[in-house]
Amino acid sequence: MSHSIASKTALSAVLAVCLFTVAAFVFTLRGGGDLTPAPVEPEVTNIAQTAVAEVTEPASIAAEPASSGSEERRDIVLAQADSAPASGRFELGTHYQRFPAAQGTSSSPDLIEVAEIFWYGCPHCYTFDPYLENWRKNLPDDVSFVRIPAVWNSVLQIHARAFYTAEALDVVAELHSPIFREIHNNQNFLDSQEALAEFFGQHGVEADAFNAAYESFAVNTKLNRADELSRRYRIASVPTVVINGKYTTDAGMAGGYDELIDLIDDLVATERADK
Question: How far apart are CA 146 and CA 105, in angstroms?
């Protein structure tokens, strides 16, 4: 008798557990609960991925609700997909990046601007410079080429001042390449106003004229503009080329210096066709 009662009790307990499990399952199916863990967004652990994210995200977007963010991401994809280089040889996301919105240029709106962000102390900029100089010899009438010196730290700012001082004194054509050679071949780093004044003096610029231009309001204004453009273009390395405030690329992305020149021409042709 006691054995029969015990068996019935055990059976009742098993039935109760089963009924509870079924009820919980039905409750879940009806949306009363979610037993599945929420998905976790993967962390970006690759430095290259981080750099690309900085290029492809707008510079001044505040936090938005999730739905608005999805809309924005879709707009970015569409914006990036609406143009391709004329030759079809280069691919967006591999050989170049496109800003979600045009970032502005330093040139007239009727011109297609090609801007190089550079630093005199950068060996890659020194290597790339002859390619650019050769390319500039046959610059089309509707293309404007500008140089924008990087200004991340005090040494770069000194070299940026050197460039803008040469520009103010109208001696960039005479001194641009010699400044590169002085730094990289002669190991004279030109990292002070005094060293630069002496160097400019060796090339026919009087010290008073150099110092006046070096410390001038015009040069300070151009330094501030260079800083603004570098931030807007999210420049993380040099040399970097920005085409018409829309596209950004470099020799590493393009596959080499010759390829970078070809890509610049392709993107210029794309911009020309879109006008």
Answer: 10
| Helices assigned H by DSSP within the chain | 2-29, 47-56, 66-81, 123-136, 154-168, 172-184, 193-202, 207-214, 217-232, 251-254, 257-274
What tokens appear for 196 in the block?
């630069």
Looking at residue 87, what is its pLDDT? Answer: 78
d(CA 151, CA 159) in angstroms, rounded, equals 8
d(CA 230, CA 234): 6
Q: Which residue has the tokens 């430095």?
A: 47
Contact 269, 144 (CB under 8 A): no
CA 21/CA 208 separation, integer angstroms: 90
The ranges of the chain with pLDDT < 50 are 1-81
Calpha distance 37→23 (Å, rounded): 20
What contacts 188, CB < 8 A, 6 or more positions away? 182, 195, 199
At 83 the pLDDT is 62
Q: Could you read off the pLDDT of 67-116 as tens digits, one per residue?
A: 334 343 333 333 444 566 767 899 999 999 999 999 989 999 999 999 99
Interatomic CA distance for residues 117 and 266, integer angstroms: 19
Q: Model pTM?
A: 0.71
The kind and range of the H/E element at 97 are strand 97-98
Rounded-to-integer distance, Cα 272 and Cα 32, Å: 58
d(CA 85, CA 231): 26
Joined tokens for residue 10: 């055990």
